[in-house]
Structure formats: structure tokens, C-alpha cells
Design brief:
seven-stranded mixed beta sheet, 343 residues, homodimer, 13 strands
Chain lengths: 343, 343
Amino acid sequence: MNIALIGCGGVGKALIQLLQEKEKQLMTQGLNIALKYVLSSKGGVYNPNGIDKADFFEFVSLERNVSIYPKGGNPNLSIEDIISNKDIDMLIELTPTNKDTGEPGLSHITQALESGIHVVTGNKGPVVLAYKKLKNIAKDNGVQLGIGCTTGGALPSINAGFMDLAGSEILSIEGILNGTTNFIIQLMEEKGINYNEALKTAQDLGIAERDPSYDIEGWDTAIKMLILVNVLMGEEKTLKDVKISGITGITQKDIFNAKTRGRKLKLIGKAVRDGEKLDMSVVLEEIDSSHPLYGVDGKNKGVRYVTDTLGDLTIIGGASGTKAAAASILRDIINIHKGYKFV
Amino acid sequence: MNIALIGCGGVGKALIQLLQEKEKQLMTQGLNIALKYVLSSKGGVYNPNGIDKADFFEFVSLERNVSIYPKGGNPNLSIEDIISNKDIDMLIELTPTNKDTGEPGLSHITQALESGIHVVTGNKGPVVLAYKKLKNIAKDNGVQLGIGCTTGGALPSINAGFMDLAGSEILSIEGILNGTTNFIIQLMEEKGINYNEALKTAQDLGIAERDPSYDIEGWDTAIKMLILVNVLMGEEKTLKDVKISGITGITQKDIFNAKTRGRKLKLIGKAVRDGEKLDMSVVLEEIDSSHPLYGVDGKNKGVRYVTDTLGDLTIIGGASGTKAAAASILRDIINIHKGYKFV
């Protein structure tokens, strides 16, 4: 399989390393991946015979400007070159998420699908804004669109909805889908510190961003829930359909009160079908030990589906970090290689 | 898709009903299932245009002898007829499990695969005894073998290993895979009754068999673990490789002692890779609330995988009963229809 990678940040780099580490194992499954292109915001690299993954990974570990890579670096390389060369089967789209426009990912994905190229992406923007449209383009062009990385990375929440619950109808979804907020809450519980201290600790550990609003205000959870709902329940919801509150108001007293009741506070995304309606929310909730997501602590994630014929299904885990996110991209690549039709 | 069903017990009947109930929904996914044959130990039914599912389900709900069904019943119908007619794409094999010989399922599955017919089965015997052989026959004949129902029914334990963990290596598996024993233990915990009383209650409720040895002695868990290990970890283990103990020795005192330590007793199947070795056991174990399977109570099931690149993954749930088992058969049918290559 010939692939191009757009976006060479943490996950992109981790993917290059993972593809190299897993090369032999993948070959035993009949999957021989040639990485022909890597494109970043500063140009890219093209090697029609496949970029040397180990060598290139070493290079990008030290140097951010991929276009000066001696074997095929090119400051003018563009997505248009990649498409017009017609020598790839799949595009891996890992540019940063823009939840308002979806760009530049949305254009990259659209162009690739329209040109009969499979796409696997970890970019939430295009998926939350335009999944249905992209799915139809993929269908019309006989190619696949893998989005498993967008809703919890290694947590197979999308896979579960497609494959593990195939043939059943999803009636509701509940998820703890944001590791950062879950980690902050656990810090407050365990260390008895207040919200600001816990946030600062999480930032110092590199778990929370310098501008943490996307996570702590509930946007990240809301977007992941929207993707699950639109993709798995056939909806076309947008952010304005979700009642969103984050964890910024949480106090030690809230934590203490929950604890004395044998409960834990969790930021829970919910989507519940109620006749024709679908109610969606992201709310801090007290749950007790009988709740299937009670054990989802720290950076862990979890999701629970209630279905008509396959009962309840709770999935917990999936490592966090760039390596695990890269592994979730590889998972989609393999499932598409194994013939699975997501669209 | 043209299918034949062999085995018309509880799950077989539930499947016929489910296929009828889901008919319209499946058609929207491009899956039009014609049930051409139903074969039981007393002959069968053949309708080249597809058996009327609603009508036939009503018939088999009242009458065990399918061969007297007025529209196509035939006391002499055999698997050989089904194979030689060459008019099906898939065989659903649901005859009772024989863990020593795998028959008659093993012959049915072998014949079908050799004739280029996909097979989906809920029959553990052939899978635990001959998965590798069957997989190779399927591969050689360009068809698929779906076995998702064999390791916990609705619990997508096999799917998870194939699809949700694609590209990662499974390092260990832990599972609560037998609902009957888990239910008996919970009864003892909640009602303060002894083992024999709890077993009797479970039998009266139809949850435990009249001869409960297969469940309570740990054989069922061991066989499910063997299937997971052989299918997902590429092993060729047999029952003699598993250290098996059941729940028959459990006392109120054990339950009480665990409870005072804040723990629960669970019958846990384990497979842990240790270098070249793979240690397998089915043992009653005390686990505390930090264990991912702590919340798996009653008839619920759960499995936890530890992997190299996708972290830990715990899957809990999946309804029990014939309807849920039938839904897990349908899940495999759909995933094969969607192009996924299990073998």
C-alpha cells in the first residue's frame, strides 16, 4: 500500500516510527506500506520508492523543517502534486483540528476521496463538520474513510459502533472521552488540591494545554460525542445541539461531597434517543460504583453504548499519547486493508 | 445473500426471528438475506426462493420437527444436499457443542468451507479443536469463517481482538466469560446463601443447566479462553494446557472474607505471555475495585486485553440469552458482508 502523510506533528512522527517498528509484522499480514510522501506546513518530502522510515524519523526528531530532508525534500511540494502524481492508495490526514472551518484538513480529505484515494484521519474538524458529505464522496468513488482516531484515539469507540455493534441499533451513548479533564478531577480527589492547582499540575506535566479551554470547557468531549452520534446514529447534529458545561466550576467541596456519598465526579458526554428527539449534553455528573464508567480514572477513557439487540457494551481504556494515537491510525489502515467497508 | 442454517435450537430460532425483524434495516445496508435451508437433526426445510421467516418462526415455536413444515419440509434433507445444490453463499452452523470431537459441527464447517461457502458459527467445539485448520481451508477457498458468538455471545471479544486491536500485539487476556458462575457467585454475595442453594436457584431460573458441570467446573471459561488465545494470539493450545478450577468449592466464608476486604470473588480466565511461554488458567480470584473487571456482575461478561501499542482495553457487557447470541451471529454475517477478512 502506497501512502502519503500530511501533518508531521507528534502523531505524524509517532506514526512514521510505528510503521517502521511494525514493518515485519505487517508484512506477515500481507501489508507492505510504502510511505511516499510526507507533507507539512513547510513543504514536504517525496520519494517514489518509499521514504526510508527509520532514517526520516531520526531526521524529523531533530529538525522541524521536513523540506530540507536530503533525500527528496522539497519546499514547494503540495497536496496537488500528491494527487496529480496518482501514485498513492491512501492519504493519512493529521493536520491540526479547526472546529469552525475544518481546514485545511477538509480540503485535503475531499480532494483525496474525489481522486479515488482512501483517507484515514485523526482530524476532528472535517469529521464533525462534514462526515455525511465526506462519506458520500468516499462511497461515490469506491474508497474508504477511516476516522477511528478522532473519538478517543486508541479507545475503539468508532470501531465498536461499526463492527462490534453491527446489526444492532444504538439507543444511547455515554462517554468519558477527555483524558485531560478526567486527570484534573482525579488529581483534586487524590491530592485534595483545588481546581487551579490541579490544572497547573496537569499543565506542568504536559497533559493540559497552555490554553486549556478546549478541554476544560467541554468542547473536546462535545465534538467527540457529535462525531459518535453523527457517524453511528446517522444524525447530523452540530455544536449548538449540545448542552455543554465543563469542569471549570468544580470545587473541593463538590469532590468531597461526592466522595462521602461513595461517588465520583466525571465529565460525561451523553446522547439519548427519546422518540424522534436526541438529547445531547456534556455535564459534570456524580456517578456511583454501579455505573459502568465508574472505574475510568486518570487519563483513561471509556464509552458505553446501549443497544436494542446486543445489550449494553462498555469499552474502557486505550492508551493515551501520540504513540497510541498513531496506533489507532494504523488500526484503521489495517482494517481498510482487510477489506472492511466503513462507508 | 443466500444462507443455510444448521441447528434449530434456541439460538437458531432466535436468529430466524431476528433476521425477520431486522429485514428492512438490513436491506438499507444492501444486505438482503434469503434463508434457503433450515436443517435440524430430524431433517429440514428447503425453499429455493427463501423460506418465509415469519411463518416458519411461528411454526418452529410450536413444533420441534421442522421436516413436517408444509412449505418445503423434507425428512431426508442433508448437509450433502445443501452443498451439492450450490445455491448458498453462507452456512450458519449452530449444532450443539461437543468439546471432545467437535462433531457434527466440524464436518459441516469443513464441507462448507471446502465448497467455497462462508461459515458463521456459534459452535465452540470445532473452533477450539481445529481453528487453525479451518482458517486455512477458508483461506484456500477464498471464504470467511466468523466465530464471534463462541466466546461470550454478544460480548465482542473476538471482534475486539481482530478489529479493535488491529496492528497491536496482545500480551495478555483476562476474562469473566461465564455468566452462570458469575450469577451464582453474586447470588451468594447478595442473599448470603450457600453454594448449593445458589446453584439450585440458578437452575430453577433456567440460568444453570440441570447438569451444571460444564459451567461450574470452569470448562466453559477454559474453552472460551482457548479460543481467544488460539485465534488472537496465534497459539495452538488445548485443554491440557489450562490449569482449571471451578467454583464448586466456594463457601460463604470465602465470600464474606472477600467482602470485608472490599473485594469480590470472580472466576477469571487468564492467559499471560511470559517470553516464549503462555500461562493459562481458570481460577477463582479475589479482585478489588481497581480491577477493570470488578464491575462485571451477574450474567454480565467482560474481557481485558493488554497490548503493546494500543494500551489496555476492557470490554464489558453484551446481553445474554438466545436473542443476544443470535444478534452476535448476525454481527458476523454483516461484517463479512461488509468485506472484512477474518482469515
